[in-house]
Amino acid sequence: MKKDDGWRVPDELWRRIEPLLPARPEHPLGCHNPRVPDRKALDGILLVLRTGMQWGALKATGLCHPSSAYRRFREWLSAGVFREFWRQGLMAYDGLARIDWRWLALDGTQGKAPLGGGRNRPQPYGPSEGRHQEKPADGLARRPPRPRGRWRQHERLQAGSLHA
């Protein structure tokens, strides 16, 4: 990509986040491939977080290699960079708009679904059960399982058969 497409980190944002980044860790052997610049890694990280795309799709954007961006994301996450940046942003907004801290609510939860079942819930009947196919009340399959091995055609009823 030759020009800014709107996904890059603006200069003002970069000036605020750069001091929060931890020092570059030393390589155990003292030599290795050059490290991707922090700003390019942050561009890739924020692109993944904003769009929800997979890490592997970063390769097509040309920002940086997916493994480099993900590795840096884990480093910065464990160092508390994103949490501190979020805190600083909240404090800056509080200075401008005066947040009423008594009226706060979370937007979502990370928890078990109330009717999701336990760890030892019954497993589906098997691979022959379709995704949207309902099971009969007694839980038994209504058709015999497919034969193992080669596919076979169903037997054709003969004209004049008693069981037609």
From TrEMBL:
Please give the residue ranges the record annotates as the region Disordered.
Answer: 112-164
Q: Which residues form the signal peptide?
A: none
Where in the numbering of this chain does the Insertion element IS402-like domain appear?
10-85
Q: Which residue intervals are annotated with compositional bias (Basic and acidic residues) in the record?
A: 129-141
This protein's superkingdom? Bacteria
InterPro entries the record matches: IS402-like_dom (IPR025161)
Q: What is this protein called?
A: Transposase, is4-like protein
Please report the organism this UniProt entry assigns to the protein: Myxococcus stipitatus (strain DSM 14675 / JCM 12634 / Mx s8)
Q: What is the lineage of its organism?
A: Bacteria, Pseudomonadati, Myxococcota, Myxococcia, Myxococcales
